């Protein structure tokens, strides 16, 4: 079965040895996605809502580059350094997924690779057989 690797251009992909997303058959798995700004660095330091939106925009692009759509997302995992702020992240998540309603989990973690990241998100997709690349 063919394996399609998708890069987002993250400076962490090559040294760590990972892809933003991997598609095998009709499954797309999106790696933990941090709020990395287009030129590098952290997008919107201190702003959890906007960091979450940034993560979801990166995920959307990765899913589309793998031949999927946001509607194909069946699970998201939202990791936060401060779970008491979950509603900020949930609000951003709802802007993307209110009608799709994937299975979703919010968890608190002690920290991320960059201390300015407040959130990191993973996503899993099952692509309609008619849209397999």
How does this structure look, described?
With 133 residues, this protein is α+β, with helices and mostly antiparallel strands. The protein has one domain (3-131): 60s Ribosomal Protein L30, Chain: A (2-Layer Sandwich), CATH 3.30.1330.40. 26% of the residues lie in helices and 28% in strands. It has three helices and six strands; from the N terminus they run βαββαβαββ. The protein has helices at 13-16, 48-65, 86-97; strands spanning 3-6, 21-24, 27-33, 73-80, 103-108, 119-126. A six-stranded mixed beta sheet has the order 1-2-3-6-4-5, covered by helices on one side. Strand 2 and strand 3 form a beta hairpin. Helix 2 (48-65) runs parallel beside helix 3 (86-97). The longest helix has 18 residues, at 48-65. It is globular, with a radius of gyration of 14 Å. The two termini are 12 Å apart.
Total strands? 6
Q: CATH homologous superfamily?
A: RutC-like
Query: What's the helical proportion of residues?
Result: 25-40%
Give the SSE order as H and E letters: EHEEHEHEE
Gap between N and C termini: 12 Å
Largest sheet: 6 strands, mixed
User: Can you count the helices?
Assistant: 3
The portion of residues forming beta strands comes to: 25-35%
Q: Pairing-aware structural class of the strands and helices?
A: alpha+beta
Topology-level CATH name: 60s Ribosomal Protein L30, Chain: A
CATH class: Alpha Beta
| Count of discrete structural domains | 1
Which strand order does the major sheet show?
A: 1-2-3-6-4-5
Backbone shape:
globular
Architecture per CATH nomenclature, i.e. the level-2 architecture: 2-Layer Sandwich
Low-confidence stretches: none
The radius of gyration over CA amounts to: 14 Å
Average pLDDT level: 94
């Amino acid at each position: 079965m063919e394996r399609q690797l998708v890069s987002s251009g993250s400076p962490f992909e090559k040294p760590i040895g990972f892809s933003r997303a991997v598609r095998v058959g009709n499954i797309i798995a999106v790696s933990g996605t941090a709020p990395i700004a287009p030129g590098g660095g952290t997008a919107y330091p201190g702003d959890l809502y906007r960091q979450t939106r940034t993560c979801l925009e990166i995920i959307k692009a990765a899913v589309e580059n793998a031949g999927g759509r946001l509607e194909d997302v069946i699970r998201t995992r939202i990791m936060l350094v401060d779970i008491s702020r979950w509603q900020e992240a949930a609000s951003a998540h709802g802007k993307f997924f209110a009608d799709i309603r994937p299975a979703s989990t919010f968890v608190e973690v002690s920290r991320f690779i960059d201390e300015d990241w407040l959130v990191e998100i993973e996503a899993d997709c099952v692509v309609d057989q008619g849209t397999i690349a």
